[in-house]
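Give me the fold.
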Amino acid sequence: MAAQGLGRSAVRGQVRQHHLDRVLEAVAVLQIDSVNVLVRSHYLPVFSRLGPYPRHLLDRAAGRHPRRLVEYWAHQASYTDPRTHALLTFRMARARQEAWAGLRRTASELPHLLEDVRAVVAGQGPLTSAAIEQTLGQTLPAPRAEWGWNWSHVKMAIEFLFRAGELASAGRTTRFERLYDLPERVLPPLPAGAGEPASEADACRELVAIAARAHGVGTEACLRDYFRMTAVQSRRAVAELVEDGRLLEVRVQGWRRPAYLDPQARMPERIGGSALLSPFDSLVWFRPRTEALFAFRYRIGIYTPAAERTHGYYVLPYLLGDRLVARVDVQADRAARVLGVPAAWLESPEARGRSQPDRIARSLAADLLSLAGWLGLDDVRVAPRGDLAEDLGRALVTARRVGTVDRVTSA
């Protein structure tokens, strides 16, 4: 958690660019997801580490020159810094072998369409995919649906070129549409000596080193997942980093597999503070690690049929100290200016012990109020579902009495 930038107190006073840079240095990757039931997923990890901050700092970092963040397939679709982006050029070069099948088919069968898309973007970019299709004046028949999408051939061509590094993202619109432009007009110049790596093996070694820094300690599988590498790539990189002394092989009590320690990892005696975590937060996105560290089995409800959801639709793990002590289903009703809590659950038998539910509820109430204020909402409403809901409702009423927010309700 120290490696992930968690456990620090929220910033007092105005959050500035150097605070954001500190978070980006710690996590290295911010996963992007289109679900907006609460807030776009890449904003929340920064809030979890800094508290309320102006989101335009992150928008500016990804959307204005010189960019501090560049979008690409790093973990999944993600923001990462330009130097890390440069380490992923080997992945771009292998797009014709490793991109999704529909993208590969389009690139193979319609090479003229790739050229047409490049020409439009070169002449008019940055453009959304819809604007590119409109400029081309055609939407060719859609190919077979893949991964739940039913993209046109033009959209497939655009996404292939992005995967191959021949187009880059110049930012996102207010509707979260990616803006495509030529890489030379998007990517900032790299610092001296920070050019592209000499080989794929060199790049993989550096990516694993970044992952190790972000983990503090983790198994080879943990380090591999951070940048979605293959087992062959990561195992070779780990072995070379151990040989060079850039990773230390260690044993972790209760883990059957060997782990690897970043030699520069901080080892605080304790972790304080609390945080609501995005489902896509890098602390918890590799579910086997989350379960091994916290005995916390986590699945995202948005991908589960309603009848099969256990805890809710958009459920955030709640970190208090060094434990995941609760999970809370949340949704932002922007029209009513309400942060809804359809359900709140205690996580473990220890959390249900004497005085623990009350302590957890008070801390969670404060963090929900902070989250609501950050999102421009002025009401928090808790539904009576889950074994923490009643205590949380009372804690929010108490917060209302002391004037934390204008309106806090338990419904």
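Residues 404-411 have pLDDT under 50 and may be disordered.
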